[in-house]
Predict the structure.
Amino acid sequence: MSTASTRLPEGRYGRSSDERADRTLKVVGVALGALLIAVIGYFAYHYIAQNKMSAEVISFDLSDSAVKVELAVEKDAGASGYCTVRSQAADGAEVGRADFRFGGDAERLTEVVTLRTTAPGTTAELLGCHAD
């Protein structure tokens, strides 16, 4: 005695609904992936292209009520903006934070700025620079 098959004959009635659903999911996944890559690229480009100012801490000198920070600033000629510097105590508490403005026609500046602190600081950290 033979067993009756519950499957449809192969190739006779087109694709099954599972195959169509898999294809649709693949198309939607590729479209969403491409959109995500485009959005990330857009924001990355604007972050890099719009950032016309950067700096780094060269050295710092500590005292009980202030930290003198030597900054090397690079910017586009004629651009102006500000850099944010902070200092922390030994326990990690923030004891000072300030924005320092830079402008002018020079592309490279080396400036010594004084950050007033509420307690003796142990560090000087550059948080970032932003062009106007």
